[in-house]
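Feature request disguised as a bug report, sorry. It would help if multi-protein outputs had a clear separator. Right now it looks like this:
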Amino acid sequence: MIGVEELRNHISSHLKTNACVVGKNIGFELRDHDVLLVGSVRTYFQKQMAQECLRPIVDDRRIVNALEVAPRQAGHRTTS
């Protein structure tokens, strides 16, 4: 099992570089034996993918997915 700081660095790096979650409003907290995902995503698929992309790196810790699904409202446009 890796140490807490190393795990924190792995998770942070993974959330910044993984194509499934890059650009999403996702954060995390390490609590006892849990990894708590916090923030918001647009779809339930993104919520599930955020959890699954971390599964290989969290050892035997439980992933608690507290991400909020907040779909973009109709008529609301963003500029690119």
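(second protein starts here, but nothing in the output says so)
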Amino acid sequence: MKPGARSTFVAINHGQVTVSVTAQAREDKANVACRKALAKALGLAPSAVKLIRGEHSRVKIFGLTGIAPAELAVKLARLPP
């Protein structure tokens, strides 16, 4: 995750999802923005995206509900580089 970016976007780089958000890394604002951006990019409700690990790190692990692995693979393949 990249907080404080000029714009919010989700991309895939070298097999990893990169989320850039305009929110600053204060008071959990960047984590919330990251979760919402990831949900929007994958067509999920924000409640379907849970932060599992990395609350205070740029590297985060999210859990997803309501999406099959095959469907997730298709949506990830459609993300811009």
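Even a blank line would do. Unrelated, but nice: Strands lie at 9-13, 16-20, 49-53, 61-64.
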